[in-house]
Design brief:
Number of domains: 1
GO cellular component, one term: outer membrane
Protein name: OmpW family protein
Largest sheet: 8 strands, antiparallel, barrel
Number of helices: 2
InterPro entries: OMP/PagP_B-barrel, OMPW
CATH architecture: Beta Barrel
Shape: elongated
Helix content: under 10%
Family: Belongs to the OmpW/AlkL family.
Keywords: Signal
């Protein structure tokens, strides 16, 4: 609970900073070509792991990667009112727990992840208040600072992975370029983990569900660069 409250506080602080940004130099535009969102995100792995000892599968053994709530950001560039690309990024720390026949081991490791996702999007109803969208793309998950909990002299390493991502979301215009946002992404991704000094390995399907809610601000990139071109992207 403490971690979740800290995360929400960080997200609120980000919201205050963006809301306090000077407006004249960066005028909001509901048809601008750039949108930045600050969101609170739940990273919810749907873990399925095959655990082996010295190459032989341990019957009934599995592993589970923890759910985490974190602050995150997205940047979307609109080629037209309907077509955009989005980059999602964040950092998260997850614990890894033994399950099934080895559940008595409890937590067997933890790791930090950097999981950027790049999606191509189609946005519906560009002139309306409620603007649903769908997306498809890829997510890369980099694992770092892995730590083994299997005792002194052990270590852990997890391979980075690349997965296929589907996305659906909704932007709600609230005026002057500001939006509320809700978004769901599903990624299918496999990785391999090793615990050095133990002979334990795991083939892991992570398949995370990534659920986000927050706010966004849409404007023209030319304003950010010092110009004042108000030409809107052409609707398709």
């Amino acid at each position: 609970m403490k971690n979740i409250l800290s995360t929400l506080a960080a997200g609120l602080a980000l919201a205050v900073l963006l809301a306090a940004a000077p407006k004249p130099a960066l005028a909001g535009d509901n048809h601008g070509d750039l949108m930045i969102r600050g969101v609170v995100t739940g990273v919810l792995p749907d873990t399925d792991a095959t655990v082996k000892l010295n190459g032989s599968r341990i019957p009934g053994a599995g592993a589970d990667v923890s759910d985490e709530v974190i602050p995150a950001m997205t940047i979307s560039y609109f080629f037209t009112d309907n077509i955009a690309v989005e980059l999602f990024c964040c950092f998260a720390k997850h614990s890894i727990d033994a399950t099934g026949s080895i559940a008595a081991l409890g937590e067997i490791g933890d790791t930090w992840i950097f999981p950027p996702a790049l999606t191509a999007q189609y946005h519906f109803n560009p002139d309306g208040t409620f603007k649903p969208y769908v997306g498809v793309g890829m997510q890369y998950i980099a694992f770092f600072d892995e730590d083994s909990k299997l005792g002194p002299g052990t270590s852990s390493a997890i391979d980075d992975g690349l997965g296929f991502t589907l996305q659906a979301g909704l932007d709600v215009a609230v005026g002057n370029g500001w939006y509320l946002n809700a978004d769901v992404k599903k990624t299918w991704l496999n990785t391999n983990a090793r615990w050095g000094g133990t002979g334990v390995t795991a083939d892991v399907d992570l398949d995370p569900l990534i659920v986000s809610a927050g706010f966004g601000y849409r404007f023209n990139l030319s304003d950010l660069l010092g110009g004042h071109d108000t030409t809107a992207p052409t609707a398709t």
